[in-house]
Amino acid sequence: MNIQTSISHDQSLMRMSGRFDFNAHKVFRETYQQLLDNSAVKSLTLDLSQVEYLDSSALGMLLQLKEKADALNKVIRLQNCSQLAKDVLAIANFDKLFDIS
Fold first, then answer.
1. Is the dihedral of CA 54, 87, 72, 9 positive or negative?
2. pLDDT computed for residue 7 by the predictor
3. pTM (2 decimals)?
4. 39-43 own/partner pairs: CB under 8 Å, 24+ apart
5. Given this model, what pLDDT does residue 26 score?
6. How many CA atoms within 13 Å lie on the side-chain side of 35?
7. pLDDT digits (tens, 9 = 90+) for 38-78
8. Can you tell me the distance from the alpha carbon of 78 to that of 61, in angstroms, rounded to the nearest whole number?
9. Which of 33, 34, 51, 66 is the most buried (most CB within 10 A)?
10. Start-end of H helices in 1-101
11. How far is CA 39 from the centre of its chain?
C-alpha cells in the first residue's frame, strides 16, 4: 500500500492506493497517528479511490482509527471509495459509523 498525505488548514487527507490488508497495518497506523497527533488537524479524510483490495483486517484498522479520532474529537471521512471499497464497507455496515462519499 502507498499513502500520500497532505494538510490544508485544519483538514488532512490520506490518499491510499493498492491493497489495504494486514500488510498495510504498520504504514497505515504510523501515517494516521502522525496526523492525529497534529493539534491543528480537526478532520481526517481517507481517499479510497485507488484501493484495489480491502479485507477484514482493513476494517479493523478503520475501527481503530475511528476510536482514536473520536477520543480526540476529530472527524473521519471516507471519500471517493472505489466500488469494491463501497461494497465491503456496506456489507460491514460501516456507513453507520463513517461519513462515506
1. positive
2. 95
3. 0.93
4. 40/7, 40/9, 40/10, 41/7, 41/10, 41/11, 41/12, 41/74, 42/10, 42/11, 42/74, 42/75, 43/10, 43/11, 43/12, 43/74, 43/75, 43/76, 43/77
5. 96
6. 31
7. 999 999 999 999 999 999 999 999 999 999 999 999 999 99
8. 13
9. 51
10. 25-37, 56-71, 83-91
11. 18
Fold topology of 2-100: Transcription Regulator spoIIAA (3.30.750)
What would the grid cell of residue 48 be?
479510497
The per-type count for the chain, helices as H runs and strands as E runs, is 3, 5
Question: Rounded to 5, what percent of the chain is helix, strand, coil?
Answer: 45, 35, 20
Residue 101 confidence class, pLDDT cut points 50, 70, 90? confident
**Looking up cell 497527533, which residue turns up?**
37
9 near 41, Cβ under 8 Å?
no
What's the one-letter identity of residue 6?
Answer: S
